[in-house]
Amino acid sequence: MAPYFGLEGLDKEAFDRWLKLFAKAVDKIYEPSAGEFFKQRSQMIARNFMRNLGID
Hints:
By secondary structure, this protein is mainly alpha-helical. Helices cover 71% and strands 0% of the residues. The protein is elongated and about 35 Å long.
């Protein structure tokens, strides 16, 4: 987690963009049932990162 503190441009919008790109990639690679698991997991990870980094 420490390397991410102070990283320029890391804000809610950056996480939102990353999640959209990740979901798009998952949709291309996995069946919907498996892909949904990975997309939900990525959202949980993003929320945890934002909370720990103090990003609202």
